[in-house]
Design brief:
rod-shaped, 190 residues, 91% helix
């Protein structure tokens, strides 16, 4: 006896339950075409037909999914290659920009170094001239201070000299008056 869909339906049921199910199915298959048992039987048979076609439909769906997946992989690979090609072009452009920028920066740095060398030389000359100027200024200041001190000493000497001359004059006048007084007193006394 071939295994039927009913046998698959009864799988795992006890022989007693399978017998009862066969009996119910037999009763349902007899009677008026519009009756519930007949409609249920038709529905069940339709479901069994659909269930029988499910493996084929699943295989077809799997094949469609495999095709869609393969197409998706192909499109992804194409998009990835396009992306990498675009990135390679952009990277090449960026590398050229970096090279030009590096060369420009090197030229600017070289020019700055030349200017810095000139500036450094000028700063050295200015520093040397400032140091020479400071030395001259220090010498002039020292000479000025020396001359000022000599002038002050001379002023003091002149002041002291005038004072000594004044004292000398006063003493001389007093000596003259005293001498005149003695001479006069001697003339009178005589």
């Amino acid at each position: 006896m071939d295994e039927t869909n009913f046998d698959a339906l009864c799988e795992g049921a006890s022989p007693q339950e399978a017998k009862q199910l066969r009996k119910i199915l037999s009763e349902w298959c007899q009677g008026d075409e519009d009756s519930f048992p007949v409609q249920l039987t038709l529905l069940t048979r339709a479901q069994w037909r659909v269930a029988a076609r499910m493996p084929q439909q699943l295989a077809a769906a799997r094949q469609q999914l495999d095709q869609a997946f393969a197409e998706h992989q192909r499109q992804t690979a194409t998009a990835f290659h396009n992306f990498t090609d675009g990135m390679a072009v952009r990277t090449g452009t960026l590398e050229q920009i970096v090279v030009r920028h590096t060369e420009t920066a090197r030229k600017i740095v070289a020019d700055m170094r030349v200017e810095l060398t000139h500036t450094e030389a000028t700063a050295k000359r200015i520093q040397n001239q400032l140091e020479a100027g400071v030395a001259v200024w220090q010498n002039a200041r020292t000479d000025f201070m020396t001359e000022r001190d000599r002038l002050m000493e001379r002023v003091i000497e002149i002041r002291n000299g005038y004072t000594q001359q004044e004292w000398f004059c006063v003493i001389l006048i007093l000596a003259a008056v005293f001498t005149f007084g003695i001479v006069l007193g001697m003339r009178i006394a005589r």
